[in-house]
Amino acid sequence: KAGVTQTPRYLIKTRGQQVTLSCSPISGHRSVSWYQQTPGQGLQFLFEYFSETQRNKGNFPGRFSGRQFSNSRSEMNVSTLELGDSALYLCASSLAFSPTYNEQFFGPGTRLTVL
Amino acid sequence: AQTVTQSQPEMSVQEAETVTLSCTYDTSESNYYLFWYKQPPSRQMILVIRQEAYKQQNATENRFSVNFQKAAKSFSLKISDSQLGDTAMYFCAFNHNSGGYQKVTFGTGTKLQVIP
C-alpha cells in the first residue's frame, strides 16, 4: 500500500497570501488529521476530518481551514499568511475503527516558509 | 485538557549504550493509548511503540521498551543497544476518546543524538 502523500513538499509564500496544502491518506483510511510542527512547540493539532466532516478542531484561528473529499483526500487552507505560520505541516491518516485507538500514519509533511 | 510533557529537549547516547527518554501526561481518562513516535532528520514520522492503558505489562518492540507507570502517569521509552539510525526526534503521544471521537496529543519532543 502506498503511504500518506502530501503535496507540495515545499512552499514559499509572502505575508498576506493564502496557501492550500493537500494530503492523500493511505487507501482505506477514513480519518485525516493535520498538525503544525514548529521547533520547541512539537506538534500542534489543527483539525481532524472523518467522512468529509470535521470532527475535532485545535486552537487555531479561523484563517486555518480544511476539508475532506469523498475519496478521503484532504486539503487545508491558510489565508492571510503571517510570518508565524512558517512551519512543517503534517498530515496523518488512520483507520479510525475504534473510538479510543488511533494509530496514525504520517506523511512527509509540507514545509511552508512565509517571507 | 490532556497534556503531554517531555522534559528532555535534547539527549545524547553512545552507540551500543542504553538511553531512556521521559514522558509524563495528565489526564482524568481511564481508557487510553500511549505512543512513541520517531521522526528521523528530514524523514517521515513513524510509530515506534504503543501501550494500552488497561494493560499492566510494558510493551516491547525489539530494542525499544517502555516503562508505563499508570498511577504516576509516566511513560518512558528505553532504547537498548543504541544505533546510529536511532538519531531522531522522539515524540510521546496520548490518544483518548474525547466526545465520542479519538484525539491525539503530542509532547514537544526529545532530540536524540547517537554518537559513534
Quick structural overview:
The complex is a heterodimer of chains A (115) and B (116). Chain A is mainly β.
| Assembly level | heterodimer
Query: How much beta of chain A, percentage-wise?
Result: over 45%
Fraction of residues in β-strands of chain B: over 45%
- Cα Rg of chain A: 13 Å
Unreliable runs of chain B, pLDDT <50, ≥5 residues? Answer: none
Question: Portion of residues in helices of chain B?
Answer: under 10%
Largest interface: A-B, 27 and 29 residues
Radius of gyration of chain B, whole Å: 14 Å
What would you call the structural class of chain A?
mainly beta
Secondary-structure element pattern of chain A, one letter each? EEEEEEEEEEE
Q: Output the structural class of chain B.
A: mainly beta
Describe, in plain words, how this protein is organized in 3D.
The complex is a heterodimer of chains A (115) and B (116). Chain A has strands spanning 5-7, 10-13, 19-24, 31-38, 42-50, 53-57, 64-68, 74-78, 87-94, 105-106, 110-114. Chain A has 115 residues and is mainly beta. In chain A, the strands form 2 sheets. In chain A, strands 2, 4, 5, 6, 9, 10 and 11 form a 7-stranded mixed sheet that branches. In chain A, strands 1-3-8-7 form a 4-stranded antiparallel sheet, with no helix packed on it. In chain A, a hairpin with a 2-residue loop joins strand 5 (42-50) and strand 6. The mean pLDDT of chain A is 91. The N and C termini of chain B lie far apart (41 Å). Chain B is mostly beta strands and 116 residues long. Chain B is globular. In chain B, strands 2, 5, 6, 10, 11 and 12 form a 6-stranded mixed sheet that branches. Chain B contains no helices and 12 strands. The model of chain B has no long low-confidence stretch (mean pLDDT 91). Chains A and B meet through strand 5 and strand 10 of A and strand 5, strand 6, strand 10 and strand 11 of B.
